[in-house]
Each structure stands twice: as C-alpha cells, then as structure tokens.
Amino acid sequence: MLTKRIIACLDVHGGRVVKGVQFVDLVDAGDPAALAARHAREGADEIVLLDITATHEGRQTLLDTVRRTARELFVPFTVGGGIKSAEEAAQVFEAGADKISVNSAALKDPSLISEIGKSFGAQAVVVAIDARRDPAAKDPVRDAQVFLQGGRKPAGRRVVEWAREAEERGAGEILLTSMDSDGTRAGFDCELTAAVSEAVNIPVIASGGAGTVAHFADVFGRGKADAALAASIFHFGVSSARSLKEELVAAGVPVRLPC
Amino acid sequence: MRVTVIDYKAGNLTSVLKALRHLGTEPVVTDSDLSLIESAERIVLPGVGHFAATERLDRTGMTGAIREAVKRAVPFLGICVGMQWLYAGSTEAAGQAGLGCFGEECSRFPEGDQKVPHVGWNSLEVKGSPRLMAGVQDGEYVYFTHSYRAPVGADTAAVAKYIEPFAAAVECGNVMGVQFHPEKSGETGLKILRNFLELEG
C-alpha cells in the first residue's frame, strides 16, 4: 500500500540549520548532515533542505552542505532556495540532490520547469508555491494569491491555475505552503491543500502550520495531501518522525514505520 | 569488483553511484565504451524519464554488448526505466524495443481516482525466493516514482500494489530489475543492492 509521506525540512543559512518564526529570530539548530541522518534514521520518508538566504556568495557553501548531507543519506533528498537556472539546478544535482525545488524563478520564467525536467526527469522537479487566501476573490481558496521572493511579493497568479500550469509544464510534485498557517502551529490549511490536490494529478506536499499529530491526520484526510512537510516540530527533539508515525498509524493513516 | 554503471543520459546517476560506493565498490560509468561492458563483473542500468531515451543504448552499440554480457551470465540490474527496458517494450514509446528478456510489455497505470504518477514508499510482497530479495520481508517499504510499470508474470520477484498489482522486481537467472529506487529506499534498498553485488556465480 502506498503510504503518506512525512518529510523533514531543514532550513539552512550559512551551512547551519536554523529555526525561527517566519524567518525572524533565527536560532542555530545544528549541523544539516547530522540532522538529516537523524531524521532519516527516525523514519522521515524524505529530507528537504531549503537555503533560506540563497545569496550568490552563499552558493558554494550550499553546494558543500548538499554534498556533505547527501553523502550518507539513502532516502530522497530535495534541495531548494534560490535556484534560478538549469545550470544552477545541475550543480545541485551533481552535489547529490535527487530533486530540486523552484519557486520564484519558475514564476518569473515557467519554461525553467520543463528545461530542468528535460535533463533530469519530471520526478526531479518540485514546484514550490507560497499562497495566501484572498478574501476579495470570488473563491478565496482556489484563487488564493501566489507570492514570490519568500512571500514578500505577489506574483499575480492564483494558486489552482498556477499549480495546473506547473503540472502541464512537467513538474513532478507541488510543495504547497500556506502563508496563513505558516509558523502558527495551528494546523495545515486543509481547504487550500485539497483544492490544489484535486486540481492536479501529481503529488501535493502540504506545508505550513504543523503543530500536532492530529494536524497531520487532518491534512492527509480532509486536505487530500500526499505528503506533509514538518520543520520545526522535529528540531530539538520536540517530536521524532518515529513517534509522529506511530501515532498516525494508531489514527488509521497509512505510513511507513522504520525498521 | 568491476561494477559498470551505464549512462544513457536519462537522469542523474549520483545517488546510484553513491550507494554502490557506500557498499564498498568502485563503480565505473560509461555512455559508450563497450570494453567497460565486456569487462564488467556487474552491470547496473539506472534511468528515469522516458522509455524512448533507451534508443541511445541501441545507437551506441551498448544493447548488443549488454546482450552478450547477459549471455555470459554477468549479473545485470535494471532500475526503474532500466527494469522496464528488460521487457519487450513499453507503450510509452511504441516501436522502441527493449532487451526482451521478459516477454511482456510495460504500460501506463490506468487513469482513475488515484493519481498517476505513483510516488512514494510502497510495501513489497516477495514472490518465491528470489536471490535479489534475500532477507527482505513481506511488508518492507521501498521508494517508487513512475507512471509506467510491468505486469506481474512468472519471473516477478516482488509485487507492489497501486491501483492494481504490478511487478516491483523481476529476476530470471542473473538478469534482475527493480521498479523502485533501491538507492533511495533506506536500509531495505541497500540490502537489495548488497544482494546483487554479493551474488554467487
């Protein structure tokens, strides 16, 4: 049986994992390679590493971090943050990523999706979408506004139509972050996730708002998510993937339990 | 041990090479050098993407070299599209023949309520006692990402179920294939790769 995926997300800045609420008050949370290995050992189905600074100078640091993190990691490994071209994507793959995620750059030039897919396969291209409900729209959920540059600037796109276009252009998965829920620990935006998941045939990874086990069960059920991203709840041992999954099994959600 | 990994310009080999190195081998990669196929003690054909890309194997003469190696019983492992290539062909690229070790044809998952592609960790049901699956228990999980698959047949070594049962692994003599990605499937995947590397004559 195909299981729901729990994906551990590591935000990195200058070669270290950091955590903070909405990118403010960053606290050092450790070494990316060590944390990725620990999450994989404890049962995370996948690791996502997001470069939250993504500066030009930081590029080499990121590639070193990716190389070091990938070395002993034998679960799928996605890297995102500031990838602007197929050449940059190729360097990240070369360093050991299995998938890359693109966000702002794909909004600015959607042909980037197919360009990367052509060389590395559609399964390797994750399109990340940051969306916020639009109370002024006829359908505030399906027409949620898409933002770029880490949520700072509206992209002039609506979430469902952009997700569909990304799929048509060859995206392998959608990583959907609800900006309304992000950092709140009050639960995923299940309506938003379901609207996107029903509109496309590729997997949708829900992100933003994880706080309790019930939130995950909810987004896999009501939210129709194929996978869910968890960042801060895994740090500092607040909750391990193993304990999260054991509770999900008890709640009737199919997940892979580590050996 | 001389492990030759075939590059036919379909996707990224980094993870496969990393896993093979982790298991103590020094794999060599070729995209055309037939001598590396002739001298190989193990051949691995990874591959993601479109079945049509396997045309490159024919054009470079690698198909013929692989066929000869397989006749000499050199253990061969196809991964993902590399497994599908062991069959007669795939409806993904009509007219592009596979190696034909297995007579069936690969085809796309049927459209319906469930999403295609099939992406994520799915459980295996081992059939018989294939050498590739030694030590793998029913219910162990491996990572898949694909839209086409091979039907269950006499040589199926493991079955997975998505929409309907399909061949997750195949084995006949020293010709083996896995639809999933052992290099991305944690300890279970490494165990399967180790089985392949440790096969005895």
Order of helices and strands of chain B: EHEHEHHEHEEEEEEEEEH
Strand content of chain B: 25-35%
The level 1 CATH classification of chain B is Alpha Beta
- Label the overall shape of chain B: globular
Largest sheet of chain B, described in full?
Answer: 8 strands, mixed
The proportion of residues in beta strands of chain A is 25-35%
Output the structural class of chain B.
Answer: alpha/beta
> pLDDT average of chain A, as an integer?
92
Low-confidence stretches of chain B: none
**Unreliable stretches covering 5 or more consecutive residues of chain A:** none
End-to-end separation of chain B = 13 Å
Q: How many E-type strands of chain A?
A: 12
Helix content of chain A: 25-40%
Question: Which CATH-level-2 architecture of chain A?
Answer: Alpha-Beta Barrel
Largest sheet of chain A: 8 strands, parallel, barrel
Name the CATH superfamily assignment of chain A: Aldolase class I
Q: What is the tally of helical segments of chain A? A: 9
CATH fold descriptor of chain B: Rossmann fold
Greatest chain-chain interface? A-B, 34 and 35 residues
Order of helices and strands of chain A: EEEHEHEHEHHEEEHEHEHEH
Short characterization:
The complex is a heterodimer of chains A (259) and B (201). In chain A, strands 1-4-5-6-7-10-11-12 form an eight-stranded parallel beta barrel, surrounded by seven helices.
General description of the model:
The complex is a heterodimer of chains A (259) and B (201). With 259 residues, chain A is α/β, with parallel strands linked by helices. Chain A has one domain (5-250): Aldolase class I (TIM Barrel, Alpha-Beta Barrel), CATH 3.20.20. Helix content of chain A is 33%, strand content 26%. Chain A has 9 helices and 12 strands. Chain A has helices at 32-41, 59-70, 86-94, 104-108, 111-120, 159-168, 190-199, 213-221, 241-250; strands at residues 5-13, 16-21, 24-30, 46-51, 77-80, 99-102, 125-132, 145-148, 153-158, 173-178, 204-207, 227-230. In chain A, helix 1 (32-41) runs parallel beside helix 2. The model of chain A has no long low-confidence stretch (mean pLDDT 92). With 201 residues, chain B is an alpha/beta fold. Chain B has a single domain, classed as Rossmann fold (3-Layer(aba) Sandwich), CATH 3.40.50.880. In chain B, 22% of the residues lie in helices and 31% in strands. Chain B has helices spanning 14-22, 34-38, 55-59, 62-71, 81-84, 186-197, and strands spanning 3-6, 28-30, 42-45, 76-79, 87-90, 102-108, 118-123, 125-126, 141-146, 148-149, 156-162, 164-172, 175-178. Chain B has an 8-stranded mixed sheet. Chain B has a 3-stranded mixed sheet with strand order 5-6-10, with no helix packed on it. A two-stranded antiparallel sheet of chain B has the order 7-9. In chain B, a hairpin with a 1-residue loop joins strand 11 and strand 12. The longest helix of chain B is centred in the C-terminal third of the chain and has 12 residues, at 186-197. Chain B is globular. In chain B, 52% of the residues are buried. The mean pLDDT of chain B is 96. The interface between A and B is medium-sized, with 34 and 35 residues.
